[in-house]
Design brief:
This protein has four domains: 163 residues, Glutaredoxin (3-Layer(aba) Sandwich); 331 residues, Glycosyltransferase, CATH 1.50.10; 77 residues; 80 residues. It is built from 26 helices and 20 strands.
Amino acid sequence: MPNRLSRETSPYLLQHADNPVDWYPWGEEAFERARDEGRPIFLSVGYSSCHWCHVMAHESFEDDDIAAELNDRFVNVKVDREERPDVDQVYMEAVQAMTGRGGWPMSVFLTPDGEPFYAGTYWPKERRHGMPAFREVAAAISEAWRDRRDEVVASAGEITAHLREAGRDAAADDLDLSITDEAAALVVGQAWDRQLGGFGRAPKFPQAMTIAYLLDRHVRTGEGDAAEAAISALDAMAQGGIYDHVGGGFARYSTDARWLVPHFEKMLYDNGLLLAAYAQAYAVSGAERLRRVAVETADYLLREMQQPEGGFSSATDADSEGVEGRFFVWSRDEFDEVVAGIGEDADLFAAFFGVSREGNWEGTNILHEPVRRDRFAEERGLDLADLQERIDRVRAALYERRAGRVPPGLDDKVLTSWNALAIRGLALAGAWLAEDRYVEAAARTARFVEDHLVVDGALHHTWKDGRAGIPAFLEDVALLAGAYLTLYEVTGDVRWFERSVELAEDAVARFSDDEHGGYFATAHDAETLYTRPKDTWDNAQPSGNSVLAEVFAKLGAFTGEAVWTDRAEGVVRLFQEHARRNPVGYGYLLQVVERLLAGPVEVAVVGAPGLARDSLLAELWRHPRPGTVVAVATPGDAAAEVVPLLADRPAVDGRPAAYVCRGFVCDRPVTTPDELRALLEPDRT
């Protein structure tokens, strides 16, 4: 019969609702039972699209004998890491401290008070590859708890004390923006894989924030290596199997160094960040191939991830029909049948997509582009534009065939923080690609968040089956504030500016660490965990602290209020030494450093909507310019009363005008794109 998880809404928890394990969701009921019965807690944390989470579930949590042993010895708690990032973060820190590595599934044994004393990730059902069997681990833990409980509890206390102390870094006395020079030297000189693209060794992750940082640095300094490293990573991913060449969008990461074999789950946060990175790279370079990937990624999100109400689902699974990647791979015979069926040359497109009889992964083919398409066309004497049209026809036919397969599972919970990344990515793509439909999609999602995830004035983290749940974390507040500021800059709709200010003020009031600096991941009035988590680095998604630093810096430019800029610099001072040593882990924070170095550049565009004003705005968005903020108003509307940058900025002789200020010192207003361009050209003297 179903366990307690059957009452939850999380797709991941519901996947485990029929396990014979007597799972509890995270909550006081489980801890109260553990205290009453003197039992340790077995905490299992994962997420719905995690392949190895499914493997451990099939091997162990669906096994009646193992379940009986777990039920007899422990109080068992299952957590969706995406639903409870606070729980995931504090126990992942424990896993990494105890084992030197982390990942999911995360498996942690706790005292009844929630303090960790033993931890790991995936344990197999039977011993293999040097790993103990899960049953053996559980038995040993149970024995230690029974026979040496005082030692176990003391050890848990020591671990907790160590982790609490580790989160108390003090901010540097002085702001050092030169860290970006050392960071760029490390990223480009050491981390960049010049041969295969990307950063570091296998497994390779997209590192969209590092890419965006390098592009910003290139724009500010003119450094060619920074742009080359960023664009080579984008090209390598777009040609590799990590990119879905049929439906668009990116998988979570590549298991190999050459980007061929992904873990096939697709995450909303990756695609929101990568959408912005490809659009930014197009705007910097003018390369149409980068624009194409941005468009295909945006269209994938709107077609397959956006729900009818306007919010975006969280992820799709790596597995379908219980097999990793089955939905995405092709045999040569099926590929040929589809391509020949529309009258195209199967051999030509097999060569283009790297399809062979023997396959490139477990006897099947992961589609990729072994040769960049401009070179492919040149080598075969084909017209590139014609080839592109033929590729699009083949992709459409493959997509139609693939749609008949059993699709991967969809995690359809809506997360505020990840939707904020989608809002930001779509808004920036719409501006940089001059695609209004993406801007409207971003605004639609923002309206959804306001209508469904704000309840009685309070922002929430999740929405599923028509109801919001779990109070917002810092990542929700910060990322939404940043997304709304971007949406305001792109649309000129002042409500998004107002909401961003409200969210930024809420972050300061309820999340700040007044003793050590920075901002906690949980609010002052949130549930108390064994230690209070703080977002300290830009991992799979930007940390709340890094995003707040950006929001504060932009609000300082919009308002002229030094308190906002001081807060931005305070966050940078707290983490600047970490970013200096590990720049790939602080890509978003380093973008803030580039913003502080390049700006502030404040641009106010005032005038009646129409072609003349649109041409000024188009010039502003023609190239990314770090450190720049954009305010837009129609004469006489409320925006000038809300956004200080717009105060006392009239149109010029009835014509729309742009006011460009640097550090609150303004040039004369201009009325033509050429004049505006001249004022915005970077000064690298």
